[in-house]
Amino acid sequence: MFIAQVQKILGNNGRTALIRKNIFASFLIKGWSVVIQFLLVPLTLHCLGNYENGIWLTISSMLLWIDNLDIGLGNGLRNKLAENLAHEDKEKARDVVSSTLFMLILVIVPVIILINILIWFTDTYSFFNIDGGIVGNLNVILATASILVCSTFIFKFIGNFYMGLQLTAVNNLLVTSGQTLALIGTALVYLSGSRSLLLISIVNTLSPLVVYLVSYPITFYGKYAYLRPRLKGVRLSVIKELFDTGMKFFVLQIAGIVLFMSSNIIISRLFSPEMVTPFQIAYRYFSVIILLFTIICVPYWTATTDAYHRKDIDWIRSANNALNKVIAVFTIVAVLMIAVSAPVYRIWVGGGVEIPLSMTVLVAVYIMILTISTRYSYVLNGIGALRLQLIMTICAAVAYIPLAVFFGRLTNSINMLIGIMCIVNLPGLVINIVQYNKIVNAKAKGIWIK
Q: Cα-atom radius of gyration of the chain, to the nearest Å?
């Protein structure tokens, strides 16, 4: 019923029909992904306990920094592939794929070396505020997990490749397959009776790599063999184009990571790794909203690129109206989720973790700010209007950490950190809305256009 209502809201023309197919398939795939995430939280908690679970959540948030170190090449691939295919230039499209893979390999090798130097020659226990008596092999855990994530980093471009083809459901399938393997592995660790943080880290970082390694030959030696990466397709001119677009995406990604992922580190250092758990549970509860909304919104990114290069502004306006209706639906969903949060928490993770209603409300507000902002960002990304987003996101990231640390120490309250996360994201939301309206109404000039 929900999918049918969403499809009715979105409409049904040629470009939108492809979006509808991707949304329908993605709902099925992501529906299973939601189940996985909800099962993983209590399962991992039972495997590790509150303290080590908080450590794993903090480490995994750090690993996401590595995952986004592609200097925007993944999103650059996505935009450039869609642009070249819109102009029916298959040779240039293949060069874009080849150049992206080459640059990803070039980027990740020094990163692997640098990360391992930092792990083995710095005091990681002090950095994470971890008791060495409880976790005695922290450096081994960090080194193993980082190497596996760095390896996944290279092959993750396959997902961006499919998004550039406007096949977001395939990317979702790849991601969810990796999560499924992680769930199976975590269940095996739990059934073995082991409380091994090392095993949990291996299971969660190896699973997506296995999926991407299997998908590579299926993708590039099958239907899309004509786009298979090749060494002679690596071109400096294409790399320059990817960098011009990709670096903007990269800074946006890093600033976004700072805004959220640094919260786990700040909480761990100011309070305790154990305090990361209730915050993450509340976040993962409401992240269902972002997950479901992203299923609907992500296909509009590449479709907007296609429409913009074909001068189809009317379609972009129509898509905007549809997304506004979807936002209204998810706002109601957020309110209902707040109302039933207490019993859901008890059923989900038991009574061992206390999550105050005030934290639940603040996380819900933060999630809705992100959701509405993302709704405009994806359309602006498709158009290629990144400069203002870049400025606002950097300002928010720069302001967040000192404000969070200062007021966190002053008030000794995690809720204050979440409130600051909301405040620093609001200006960017407003600018996104203003810029979108200027562009579609042909009133954008100067910094507002790019």
A: 22
The CB-side HSE value for 317 (13 A sphere, CA atoms) comes to 10
Q: Taking the CA atoms of 283, 286, 292 and 295 in sequence, report the sign of the dihedral they define.
A: negative
What's 63's DSSP letter?
H
224, containing H or E segment? none
How far apart are the C-alpha atoms of 143 and 203, rounded to whole Å? Answer: 14
Task: Give the other-Cβ count within 10 Å of 322's Cβ.
Answer: 18
Whether 294 contacts 433, CB under 8 Å? no
pLDDT score at 8: 47
* Inter-CA distances, 304 with 13, 359, 366, 421, Å: 14, 36, 26, 29
Predicted confidence at residue 253, as pLDDT, reads 67
How buried is 125 (Cβ within 10 angstroms: 0-12 exposed, 13-18 middle, 19+ buried)? middle
Which conformational region is residue 11 in: left (phi greater than 0), alpha (psi within -120 to 50 degrees), or beta?
Answer: left
Three-state DSSP at 16 gives: helix
Rounded Cα gap, residues 116 and 113, in angstroms: 5
Q: What is the mean pLDDT of each run of 10 residues along the chain (450 residues)?
A: 46 61 76 84 86 83 67 73 80 88 85 89 84 83 91 88 84 91 92 86 93 94 89 80 67 67 75 77 86 78 75 81 88 94 86 84 92 84 78 84 85 85 89 86 77
3-state secondary structure of 353: coil
Contact 432, 380 (CB under 8 A): yes
pLDDT score recorded for residue 9:
44
What the block records as the tokens of 147 is 């190497």
Place of tokens 């996505």: 78
Q: Are 132 and 138 in contact (CB under 8 A)?
A: yes
Cα distance between residue 191 and residue 185, in whole Å? 10
Q: Indicate the pTM of the whole model.
A: 0.66
Sign of CA dihedral 168, 173, 176, 182: negative
Provide the 8-state DSSP code for 273: G
The pair phi, psi for residue 444, each rounded to 5°, is -80, 130
